[in-house]
Amino acid sequence: MNVHDFRIDVPAVVIEDLRDRLRGTRWPDQVEGVGWGQGTEREFLREVVAHWGHNFDWFAVQDRLNHCAQRLVEVSGGLRVHVVHERGEVEGGQPIVLLHGWPSSFVQMLPIMPMLTQPSRYGGSAGDAFDAVALSLPGYGFSDRPTDAGWDLRRIADAVVEVMEALGYTTFAGRGSDLGAGVLQQLALAYPDRLVGLHLSGTNPYLGWVPDDLTPEEQSFVEAAQDWNAREMAYAQEHSSKPQTLAHALNDSPAGLASWVLEKFRAWSDCDGDLRNVYDLDDLLTNLTVYWVTETIGSSMRLYWEAARSTNAAYGRVEVPTGMAMSDKDMFPTPRAWAERSYRLTRWTKLQRGGHFLEWETPEPLAEDIRVFFRELRTARLEG
């Protein structure tokens, strides 16, 4: 069997080393009054590092995570993929794979999993229950780090199909954002018969070829994307060109890791400039600690390098029925007309709150939109 039960078991010496490094952080200077204008604000990061090093209880978090049903699934080439696999309250529920992006991890999906698997506890119908699979992308979290080149979005899409088959699902639904949405796009193009539908969110700043028949709303979107790329895209350029250079620093310094990751959470979330308006600090530190103890910051960034050099990516318009839950508080607003150029949209929801990490920021409305979308698809299939 290539499916094995898994429990997180981080050695105490790893956590003590983390705390020692946090306590020994060597702080840079900062221009007076600049705030976040030049990047991560020092005093905020001091607070984070102090809490991480002195108050954050990883082992209590580890115990809570281990209450989830976790598996390691071996795919072609021997790489093991970590999943949290929770079955729905009704036998035979719709299977759904949940895919995160960067700088996130499988823990982003945990808030909505009970809302999908046990909907009757959250004001929904038991008939909408899913079998939910939160999958850690290869090179992220407790999935193995690829040791060979070529693990691009398409190859990961192949692995997702293998994982779902190993868990007993030949067809399934997909939910994702960021790089996870990119994997699902590749899966939908390469294996359309495997997917009953896609549910996506998140602005994509990669424009690629820009058509010459833009609507005024699309033209505004392209201009916003170009402006965002000029101001905010340096991180992705580094990931895509020299990820190993940065990996040496971030794999060695937890304060550096926190600075690199939390600046993106602040910039991409609907938090009015203060992460504490949206997130519990321990949730952010859980995500950071997963990166630290698995030493996956380097392999996670390497996915950008792989995507930029992919030679086997599928291209075309996705014809799998797709629903999108979109927020104008993400990087910048995306018009429906632009999304329809790439996807067969059958549902489009404008969310009033939330940014790039909706499973964390607004789990209840997101879970409800997922349930409604796939219920509509089931009804349409029955009527058809």
From TrEMBL:
InterPro entries: AB_hydrolase_fold, Epox_hydrolase-like, Epoxide_hydro_N, Epoxide_hydrolase. Residues 4-108 form the Epoxide hydrolase N-terminal domain. This is Epoxide hydrolase. Keywords: Aromatic hydrocarbons catabolism, Hydrolase. The lineage of its organism: Bacteria, Bacillati, Actinomycetota, Actinomycetes, Propionibacteriales. Gene3D superfamilies: alpha/beta hydrolase. Belongs to the peptidase S33 family. The keyword Metal-binding does not apply. It comes from the Bacteria. One of its GO terms (molecular function) is hydrolase activity.
